[in-house]
């Protein structure tokens, strides 16, 4: 190759002489291959006709791929169809086969790359229960996504079908497809150059169509298949079903055709220009202004975003490793490119938005939700990003200024080109980094029982479940990028000329060589950009024959005076110092915020107070929503006396937004660990820069106590709690309490009755206690002894009666005649027990009946007296009540 042609312009340029030669050959019925490298380019139509040799029969018979091989062309027909037919017939079959096989090679390579990425992702999730068989079905779906296919994930359970469709580009695989298609097409074009543009388009289109067919067919026949449900009987049928995921879609077909065709054609056209030795032509000034402006801007645009993307890639990888570990790198091939593209907008202060009704289904919001860079990273990181981005913008403006120094662009064209180029870049970034999704539900396949349950509202269910949404940079990101382009143009026009003079010529030369390595050469004052050279002429710089304008060499800049240089340096030092100062202050503020004013710190203060038994601090920091009357158990004395409380904690995660934060901690209580999440809200700032975070009111469980009337005080963990009149009347007490173990009993030294102490445990996550203390006043031993004594005295009184049937006595006997000399003897006392009554009295009942013997004299109506002896069983029944604080037995007979 002669190396004079390619300057990075992908548009195909053909000189008038080349077109004339080609048309002359076609008129003769033969289309010759492009001339080999090193052949001088004809300059006129006559020279082209004389220099172009006629294709000999021997040359026409050369094998496919041999240099100089000729392809027969059919005479042009009168219609488009006949012309297309003639074009197809003029192409050797081997060319079609090569184009089709090239598509197969491209797809196979992309499939293998997707397989590697999938296996790495499975390795990263080795602890999860994954079906490794899916790893070999996933690559086809990933390739489908890479060509803008729609991945539809669906499942059918109990006759209800649901599907979620996702449109997302795995950009690394997409880029690989573009590069692979271009490389394969370039190799084919080098082996057998195409004679005309039409042939190149036809072969490229064939590559695109074959690639599209491979994408669609393989994705359709190898879907991701899986089972849903555990086959449990729900009463309406077995909860089981199946699902599948496939990216075979119309968008995948169209995307594959476009990617395969364009990548192949651009590669073939590039080879054709190199083989023909065609250089970008010098065109009249009136027509070249916009072209020159675009050619000077686009490489700079690519350099700017390329460097920025590289910096973002490094930063995101470091952040991922620090926050999630090295396993995250195994999945970075999928998420990193999209995140980098979105970050290109974020660092330029364009927000990422969530739009649509999918946010509602996800528990977020149906309206747009925006995420801005300053709210996503610390303040010092925001300042650092802005400083680095501003420095990169300045460098971009300088490079753009140097690239345009040798051009005579009008200000309007210069401004318009820069702004539009950056705006279009914003559109591209928004599209490439976006994710779209939508859902659907179909209830037409439900069974009769479930259909009856739905009651004819299946259509309503389908409508409610249908949702859609997008996640990506805001739709107006292109406006932000247009403003960025305007800033670059301002720097290029007014700032760059002054800054360039502060850089030594040797430094500029080294920088020019460095940028030239990535295809962005610029003009050092006194030179011409090598990539923008034009054919040499004898005319002086800036003039040419026939109205053709050539770029002028850039003359040396007029040197600045020492005083002006000094002022510029002072300004630069001041700006740099201010930037360093702002960054340092931001770092200091961030450190202080994280140490003393962070959400984490507030939770630590609260939990430290709980561990130390400092109830007052815990209540203040925890913002417990309790009244003063409800703080009976929320005292330092109570918290200190409570066993089984919080003994330690470990903060495990902090998720902070602009106005709210979630802090997760593993809290230790009674030898067990429980995860707790605390919500905090930003209430303002201190000293204008330090954040104030307050805990959302911490929920405290309630200690529930039910007690009998007669109890006026409770003993809770050794602390006396007085009961109000309303409490005593209701017999219940509900008081907020800190986590811990509470022993509850009746207070006071009552010798007769007391409530048996009961233990209630309140956990750190307890919201509604299932346990409650049931306090019932039970007789003490002294009470029982007193009752037994009273019962014995009562029986003794009954026994002292000289009657077989003394009034209100449980011992009695019946006989006829005149009864005299009655003597009762208690042989075995009855065994009694006390049962509590609802009126605050105790029932005395007999558990084992006693026995008594009575002797008496029975005189009948005739006057005959006879000694009688009887043994009877008896029971004791009665009640016991506290009278003047003492138990008093009352006979129940």
Automatic annotation (TrEMBL):
<feature type="transmembrane region" description="Helical">
    <location>
        <begin position="166"/>
        <end position="185"/>
    </location>
</feature>
<feature type="transmembrane region" description="Helical">
    <location>
        <begin position="205"/>
        <end position="228"/>
    </location>
</feature>
<feature type="transmembrane region" description="Helical">
    <location>
        <begin position="473"/>
        <end position="500"/>
    </location>
</feature>
<feature type="compositionally biased region" description="Low complexity">
    <location>
        <begin position="11"/>
        <end position="24"/>
    </location>
</feature>
<feature type="compositionally biased region" description="Low complexity">
    <location>
        <begin position="39"/>
        <end position="56"/>
    </location>
</feature>
<feature type="transmembrane region" description="Helical">
    <location>
        <begin position="96"/>
        <end position="122"/>
    </location>
</feature>
<feature type="transmembrane region" description="Helical">
    <location>
        <begin position="570"/>
        <end position="592"/>
    </location>
</feature>
<keyword id="KW-0472">Membrane</keyword>
<feature type="transmembrane region" description="Helical">
    <location>
        <begin position="134"/>
        <end position="160"/>
    </location>
</feature>
<keyword id="KW-0812">Transmembrane</keyword>
<feature type="region of interest" description="Disordered">
    <location>
        <begin position="535"/>
        <end position="558"/>
    </location>
</feature>
<feature type="transmembrane region" description="Helical">
    <location>
        <begin position="379"/>
        <end position="400"/>
    </location>
</feature>
<feature type="region of interest" description="Disordered">
    <location>
        <begin position="1"/>
        <end position="56"/>
    </location>
</feature>
<keyword id="KW-1133">Transmembrane helix</keyword>
<feature type="transmembrane region" description="Helical">
    <location>
        <begin position="412"/>
        <end position="438"/>
    </location>
</feature>
<protein>
    <submittedName>
        <fullName>Uncharacterized protein</fullName>
    </submittedName>
</protein>
<feature type="transmembrane region" description="Helical">
    <location>
        <begin position="248"/>
        <end position="267"/>
    </location>
</feature>
<feature type="transmembrane region" description="Helical">
    <location>
        <begin position="301"/>
        <end position="322"/>
    </location>
</feature>
């Amino acid at each position: 190759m002669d190396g004079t042609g390619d300057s990075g312009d992908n548009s195909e340029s053909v000189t008038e002489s080349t077109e004339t030669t080609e048309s002359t050959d076609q008129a003769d019925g033969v289309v010759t291959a492009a001339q080999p490298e090193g052949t001088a380019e004809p300059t006129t139509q006559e020279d082209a006709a004389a220099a172009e040799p006629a294709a000999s029969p021997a040359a026409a018979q050369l094998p496919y791929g041999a240099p100089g091989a000729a392809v027969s062309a059919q005479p042009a027909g009168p219609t488009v169809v006949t012309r297309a037919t003639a074009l197809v017939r003029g192409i050797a079959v081997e060319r079609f086969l090569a184009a089709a096989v090239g598509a197969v090679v491209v797809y196979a390579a992309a499939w293998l790359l997707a397989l590697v990425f999938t296996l790495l992702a499975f390795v990263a999730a080795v602890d999860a229960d994954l079906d490794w068989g899916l790893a070999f079905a996933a690559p086809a779906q990933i390739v489908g996504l890479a060509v803008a296919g729609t991945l539809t994930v669906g499942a059918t359970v109990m006759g209800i079908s649901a599907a979620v469709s996702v449109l997302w580009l795995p950009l690394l695989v997409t880029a690989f497809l573009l590069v692979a298609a271009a490389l394969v097409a370039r190799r084919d074009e080098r082996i057998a150059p195409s004679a005309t543009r039409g042939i190149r388009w036809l072969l490229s289109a064939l590559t695109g169509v074959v690639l599209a067919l491979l994408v669609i067919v393989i994705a359709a026949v190898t879907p991701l298949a899986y089972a849903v449900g555990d086959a449990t009987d729900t009463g309406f049928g077995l909860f089981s079903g199946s699902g599948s995921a496939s990216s075979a879609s119309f968008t995948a077909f169209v995307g594959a055709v476009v990617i395969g065709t364009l990548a192949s054609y651009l590669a073939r056209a590039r080879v054709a220009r190199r083989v023909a030795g065609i250089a970008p032509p010098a065109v009249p000034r009136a027509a070249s202004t916009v072209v020159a402006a675009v050619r000077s801007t686009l490489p700079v645009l690519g350099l700017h975003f390329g460097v920025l993307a590289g910096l973002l890639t490094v930063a995101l990888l470091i952040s991922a490793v620090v926050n999630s570990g090295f396993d995250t790198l195994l999945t970075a091939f999928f998420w990193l490119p999209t995140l980098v593209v979105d970050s290109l907008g974020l660092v330029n202060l364009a927000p990422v938005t969530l739009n649509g009704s999918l946010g509602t289904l996800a528990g977020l919001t149906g309206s747009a939700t925006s995420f801005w860079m300053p709210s996503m990273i610390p303040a010092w990181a925001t300042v650092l990003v802005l400083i680095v981005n501003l420095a990169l913008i300045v460098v971009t403006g300088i490079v753009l200024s140097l690239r345009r120094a040798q051009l005579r662009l009008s200000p309007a064209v210069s401004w318009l080109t820069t702004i539009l180029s950056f705006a279009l870049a914003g559109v591209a970034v928004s599209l490439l980094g976006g994710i779209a999704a939508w859902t659907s539900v179909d209830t037409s396949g439900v069974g009769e029982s479930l259909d009856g349950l739905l009651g004819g509202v299946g259509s309503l269910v389908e409508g409610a479940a249908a949702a859609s949404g997008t996640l990506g940079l805001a739709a107006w990101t292109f406006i932000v990028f247009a403003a960025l382009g305007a800033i670059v143009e301002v720097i290029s026009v007014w700032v760059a000329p002054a800054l360039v003079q502060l850089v030594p010529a040797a430094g500029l030369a080294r920088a020019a060589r460095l940028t030239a390595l990535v295809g962005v050469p610029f003009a050092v004052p006194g030179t011409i950009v090598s990539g923008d050279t034009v054919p040499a002429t004898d005319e002086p710089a800036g003039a040419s024959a026939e109205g053709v304008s050539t770029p002028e060499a850039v003359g040396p800049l007029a040197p600045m005076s020492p005083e002006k240089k000094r002022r510029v340096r002072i300004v630069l030092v001041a700006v740099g110092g201010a930037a360093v100062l702002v960054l340092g202050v931001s770092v200091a503020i961030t450190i202080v915020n994280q140490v003393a004013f962070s959400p984490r710190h507030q939770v630590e203060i609260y939990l430290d107070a709980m561990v130390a038994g400092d109830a007052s601090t815990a209540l203040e920091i925890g913002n417990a929503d309790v009244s003063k009357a409800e703080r009976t158990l929320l005292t330092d004395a109570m918290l200190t006396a409570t066993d089984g409380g919080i003994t330690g904690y470990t903060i495990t995660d902090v998720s902070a937004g602009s106005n709210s934060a979630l802090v997760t901690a593993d809290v230790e209580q009674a030898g067990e660990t429980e995860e707790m999440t605390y919500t905090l809200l930003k209430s303002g700032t201190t000293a204008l820069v330090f954040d104030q975070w307050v805990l959302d009111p911490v929920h405290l469980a309630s200690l529930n106590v039910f007690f009998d009337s007669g109890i006026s005080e409770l003993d809770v963990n050794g602390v006396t709690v007085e009961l109000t009149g309303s409490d005593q009347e209701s017999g219940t007490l509900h008081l907020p309490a800190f986590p811990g173990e509470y022993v509850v009993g009746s207070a006071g030294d009552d010798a007769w009755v007391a409530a048996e102490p009961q233990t209630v445990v309140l956990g750190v996550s307890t919201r509604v206690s299932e346990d409650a203390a049931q306090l019932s006043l039970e007789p003490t031993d002294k009470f029982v002894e007193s009752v037994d004594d009273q019962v014995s005295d009562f029986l003794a009184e009954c026994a002292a009666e000289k009657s077989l049937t003394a009034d209100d006595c449980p011992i009695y006997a019946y006989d006829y005649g005149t009864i005299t000399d009655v003597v009762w003897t208690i042989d075995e006392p009855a065994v009694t027990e006390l049962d509590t009554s609802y009126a605050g009295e105790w029932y005395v009942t007999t558990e084992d009946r006693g026995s008594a013997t009575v002797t008496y004299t029975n005189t009948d109506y005739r006057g005959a007296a006879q000694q009688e002896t009887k043994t009877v069983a008896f029971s004791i029944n009665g009640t016991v009540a506290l009278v003047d604080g003492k138990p008093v037995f009352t006979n129940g007979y």
